[in-house]
Write a structure and sequence with these properties.
With 327 residues, the chain is α/β, with parallel strands linked by helices. It is 39% helix and 18% strand. The strands form four sheets. A seven-stranded parallel sheet has the order 3-2-1-4-5-6-11, sandwiched between helices. A three-stranded mixed sheet has the order 12-9-14. Helix 5 (141-160) links the parallel strand 5 (112-118) and strand 6 (165-171). Helix 8 (262-273) crosses helix 10 (312-325).
């Protein structure tokens, strides 16, 4: 049993992970400023603090009061187009605030740190799939902010020696909802494809747009590796087990190792929902790579992670079922 601080634990991925960590018998403390998260999403068994990760005094107090030995860090902005139009927002929160959090954790003796990174650090890779040895080359401020935080962990962790170990999990496209229907993505003004498509299927939008039909892919639309949120939550549990057993700092991809195009995803959402919603074809958005697919051999080998929901229909169905009941 671990005492774990989850930053951003009221958000989409953070709430699912908090629930899974609780189910495994851990004690969970959630710190969230509720910018894009919801108090109702925090499991009732978790201790909740409303606040910011750059509040060093608050973080130190939480660590000491609850004897925190591991931190799972989700708190960050994630909208790629917004990062292009307002990069200062992303550097302030995703980089500077993350540094403050990491620094105070090391000062207070936290041994283990799990960071919510992103496949956006890879930019536009030259290979069909990317493993962790591919040189990062992000093409937008969001991806750069994640990479800088990875560097921060590496440098501060090296200086701390054996007293601090971290794992950065590079998420590919996270989607779907808890199969019991109690949790899902409720982010306002969401930009994630499956969320947007499900909103259109439920009549919450007049329709949706596909941005870019001239990419060098099979049907001209972007290709992404979609991972179900429950499988991603399980990856965090496996990561903490790895660190607790003496694992050293490392960086790991989180994906299924195969991709689907935007058009394939929209078609699947239409099929699971029975709704033939309107879809318009628009020009490319800035900052979108043509395709990103994970080589996930490392996470399976090092963490013994096994996917349970590696199926696009399941991902889209659970997302749609959640969306149609979300008011």
């Amino acid at each position: 049993m671990l005492n774990i601080l989850v930053t951003g634990g009221a958000g989409y991925i953070g709430s699912h992970t908090s629930l899974r960590l609780l189910e495994a018998g851990n004690n969970i403390v959630v710190l969230d400023n509720l910018y894009s998260g919801y108090r109702w999403a925090v499991p009732k068994e978790a201790v909740f603090y409303e606040g910011d990760i750059h509040n060093r005094a608050l973080v130190a107090d939480i660590i000491n009061k609850h004897d925190i030995t591991a931190v799972v860090h989700f708190a960050g902005y994630i909208v790629v187009p917004e990062s292009v139009s307002n990069p200062s927002k992303y550097y302030q929160n995703n980089v500077i605030s993350s540094f403050e959090l990491i620094d105070i954790c090391i000062q207070q003796g936290v041994k283990h740190f799990v960071f919510s990174s992103s496949a956006a650090v890879y930019g536009i890779p030259s290979t069909t799939t990317v493993d962790e040895t591919v040189e990062p080359n992000p093409i937008n401020p969001y991806g750069r902010s994640k990479l800088i935080t990875e560097w921060t962990l590496q440098d501060l962790g090296f200086a701390a020696g054996d007293e601090f170990e971290f794992v950065a999990l590079r998420y590919f496209n996270v989607a779907g909802a808890y199969n019991g229907g109690m949790l899902g993505q409720a982010t306002p003004e969401a930009t994630h494809l499956i969320k947007v498509a499900c909103e259109a299927a439920c009549g919450k939008r007049d329709g949706m747009a596909i941005f870019g039909t001239d990419y060098d892919t099979s049907d001209g639309t972007c290709v992404r590796d979609y991972i179900h949120v429950e499988d991603l939550a399980e990856a965090h549990l496996d990561t903490l087990d790895y660190l607790s057993e003496g694992g050293q700092s490392t960086i790991v991809n989180c994906g299924y190792g195969r991709g689907f195009s935007v058009k394939e995803v929209v078609k699947t959402v239409k099929e699971v929902s029975g709704s033939d919603f309107s879809v318009s074809m628009e020009t490319r958005r800035p900052g979108d790579p043509p395709q990103l697919i994970a080589d996930n051999s490392k996470i399976k080998k090092v963490f013994n992670w096994q996917a349970r929901f590696d199926d696009l229909e399941t991902i889209c169905r659970t997302a749609y079922e959640w969306e149609k009941n979300l008011t």
